[in-house]
Design a protein that fits this description.
The protein has 585 residues and is α+β, with helices and mostly antiparallel strands. The protein is built from 13 helices and 18 strands. The strands form 4 sheets. Strands 2, 4, 5, 8 and 9 form a 5-stranded mixed sheet that branches. It has a 5-stranded antiparallel sheet with strand order 10-11-12-16-15, with no helix packed on it.
């Protein structure tokens, strides 16, 4: 599986779209300085997004929240959101915190800044409230795992009972109850999970109303309805052909409630991805749920074991094919396999799956050791011995032959029973190992379902400028300078945005000894890359009325550049200071 995934990744990616929305662009741009206050904000994401109540919060330079208009999608663009701003915004840096729901049902959040006139001196740290509540997120993840586990028990246990009506009903009933309870919890927690609020939000009527009109909420409601139909089927003591067909339809529909509200519906090749997700979930359920049903059943005919072994082998083939496709679709590049959390988690899953397949191989070899039921062989030996005794002798000789025949039959039965016992113990150990590793695979799959795919993580990283504390998306450097008297020192705060190779804008604010804005006759900023002998490159900053700026300075190479700041403090005196600035590729 890993070899095929690596081969596909080396052959090339599959486009730029990916699950989990990433912020593509903003207007005003992240970290930018605009001359006049905008009347609205525009945010463009990599995929369509859903809006929540309070999806956007805007904070002024004093960290007070502004009253904004109602956010909405741009006409005909489900991936673009516009937020009206109040008029009369003052000078300084504004912070925009956002939280939306991506097309694959997962909430995503973040923040960016822009400045009007000039950046705010040393912006204070601000809690934007974009993180999710740990209790809500943890309980939601636990319910998701329980839902996967319940689906596996219900689907796999149902298939095993269809193969052998004498199979234990406990796994099927437990799976139905677990899935129903987990789905109800997910439906209740959906609103606070999306909003990132505490558990009390589960009882908010407005949140519940929003959930019941969203795609994830509708999928959960459909799942509860399908569980009602499954409950009717489970009440039947015997499953005829019609009941088995109905059960298969319900199982496929249940799998669709996951596929239509998860990673499969966002990104490339959506129809293929949905089919792959459905097949992957069904194959997982039939295999792992069937194993649990096998463990819970006291006696299983050998013919049923052989039949289930063949079905399990088919499930493994489906899991390999769909798993490879989903891994390739989610990763997008070879670097993402080790460079993203999704890729590293996928490597762990592949390792556990390899161990799971080894256990499955041991179970299959044990099943092959059980050729025919022991009871059948004993009956045939009895019949053959009895016929030979009746046709060849009578009286005492016949009785002796009959006794000898009984001893032969007993010895044969004992040998067969011993062989069956050994194979049975070997099979049970292998199945226990399979079931335990299968539960671990389901746990990892649950975490993967809530992890940003490697393709999306790489895409978001490409669009993120070099971030520094205080002003996301910009490189901010403080350059102290001496005013020529003891205790009198000023500071120039230089903002380089985005601080990458190519064109960047430069803004510089001069502060006096008292920390207030200071006016100077002249300010010059230049950049030199000593390691490559490049520079000095003059930024050509000009006085913009309270701050100095240049709309473009081109730094052609990555590395640690030396920034030289020259401040003319009077008509005859000037001071120069240097600082290192890291320029990313």
């Amino acid at each position: 599986m890993l070899g095929v995934v690596l081969t596909l990744l080396l052959l090339g990616g599959a486009g730029s779209a990916s699950a989990h929305a990433a912020l593509r662009t903003t207007d005003p741009a992240d970290g930018s300085v605009v001359k006049t206050a905008p009347d609205h904000l525009t945010l463009t994401f990599t995929e369509s997004v859903g809006l929540l109540d309070g999806s956007f919060r805007v904070f002024d330079p004093g960290n007070h929240r502004l009253r904004t208009g109602e956010a909405g999608h741009a006409p005909g663009r489900s991936d673009t959101v516009r937020l009206p701003l109040p008029g009369g915004l003052g000078r300084g840096t504004y912070t925009v915190a956002w939280r939306v729901v991506s097309a694959d049902s997962h909430p995503v959040s973040g923040a960016f800044t822009f400045s009007v006139g000039a950046p705010t001196p040393a912006p204070a740290a601000l809690d934007t409230g974009t993180d999710e509540d740990p209790a809500t997120g943890g309980l939601y993840d636990l319910a998701r795992y329980a839902a996967y586990l319940g689906a596996a028990l219900l689907i796999g246990g149902g298939v095993f009972r269809a193969l052998w009506p004498g199979a234990a009903r406990t796994p099927v009933n437990a799976g139905w109850g677990t899935l129903a309870a987990a789905t109800a919890v997910l439906l209740l927690l959906r609103a606070p999970y999306e909003a990132g609020t505490g558990l009390s939000g589960a009882f908010d009527p407005s949140g519940a109303a929003r959930t019941l009109t969203s795609r994830p909420g509708l999928a959960l409601v459909a799942r509860l309805a399908l569980l009602g139909a499954a409950g009717v089927l489970l009440r039947r003591r015997a499953w005829g052909r019609g009941a088995r067909v109905s059960g298969g339809v319900v199982a496929v529909a249940l799998a669709l409630t996951w596929a239509l509200a998860d990673h499969a519906v966002a990104g490339i090749q959506v129809p293929v991805a949905v089919v792959s997700a459905v097949l992957h979930l069904l194959a997982t359920g039939v295999w792992l749920g069937g194993l649990v049903a096998l463990l819970c059943t006291r006696e299983v005919p050998v013919a049923v074991l052989h039949r289930f072994s063949r079905i399990a082998l088919g499930c493994v083939a489906v899991l390999v094919a769909t798993g490879v496709y989903q891994a390739w679709r989610g990763l997008g590049s070879l670097d993402a396999l080790t460079g993203t959390a999704y890729g590293r988690l996928l490597l762990v899953k592949l390792t556990v799956v390899a161990l799971l397949l080894a256990g499955a191989g041991g179970a299959r070899r044990a099943v092959r050791g059980l050729r025919v039921p022991v009871a059948t062989g004993v009956v045939r030996d009895r019949e053959r011995v009895g016929a030979r005794a009746g046709g060849g002798s009578s009286g005492a000789g016949a009785d002796a032959d009959a006794d000898a025949g009984e001893r032969v039959v007993a010895e044969a039965a004992g040998v067969a029973a011993g062989q069956a016992s050994v194979a049975g113990r070997r099979l049970r150990r292998a199945v226990y190992a399979e079931a335990a590793l299968g539960a671990l695979v389901l746990l990892i799959s649950t975490v993967l379902a809530g992890t940003v795919p490697g393709r999306a993580a790489a895409e978001a990283a490409e669009r993120q400028p070099l971030a520094v504390p205080g002003l996301p998306g910009a490189s901010v450097t403080d350059v102290p300078f001496d005013l020529g008297a003891p205790g009198r020192q000023g500071k120039v705060q230089v903002t380089l945005e985005p601080g990458r190779v190519g064109d960047s804008s430069v803004q510089a604010v001069v502060y006096g000894p008292d920390g207030g804005l200071a006016a100077v006759p002249e300010l010059r900023i230049s950049f030199t890359l000593p390691a490559q002998g490049v520079g000095p490159i003059d930024a050509r900053v000009t006085d913009r009325g309270g701050y100095w700026a240049s709309d473009r300075v081109t730094l052609p190479l990555p590395g640690r550049w030396t920034m030289k700041v020259t401040v003319r403090v009077s008509e005859t005196d000037q001071v120069s200071e240097t600082r290192g600035v890291e320029i990313a590729r």
